[in-house]
Task: inverse folding
């Protein structure tokens, strides 16, 4: 059995979601480059981020000139209703620290356009 694992960066999950398109395309390319297209593939998506990444991965698969045999998809703890407090609790669980500190840390991040903070 072959296992390929990927966890998207936190900023891509919440603030720079447009980058997930490129990540999905790169994962498809990696499967082809490693000749995994000749093996049956089962995808395990964890949480909302995994489900969102799978959405972009499956869109990239549709554009792929070579068929990749996806035999199944497991959605583990996803998707869920989006709530702002749940978002910052999830970020705090990943980053550690106080929920309110993380809110201000994200809000003051220079890489984040102001319009992306409104969920």
Result:
């Amino acid at each position: 059995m072959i296992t390929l694992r990927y966890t998207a960066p936190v900023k891509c999950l919440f603030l720079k979601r447009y980058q997930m398109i490129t990540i999905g395309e790169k994962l498809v390319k990696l499967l082809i480059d490693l000749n995994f297209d000749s093996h049956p593939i089962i995808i395990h998506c964890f949480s909302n981020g995994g489900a969102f990444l799978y959405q972009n991965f499956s869109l990239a698969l549709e554009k792929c000139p070579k068929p990749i045999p996806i035999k199944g998809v497991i959605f583990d703890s996803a998707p869920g209703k989006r709530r702002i407090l749940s978002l910052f609790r999830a970020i705090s669980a990943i980053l550690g620290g106080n929920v309110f500190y993380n809110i201000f840390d994200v809000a003051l991040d220079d890489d984040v356009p102001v319009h992306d903070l409104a969920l």
Observations:
- The radius of gyration is 16 Å.
- The chain has five helices and two strands.
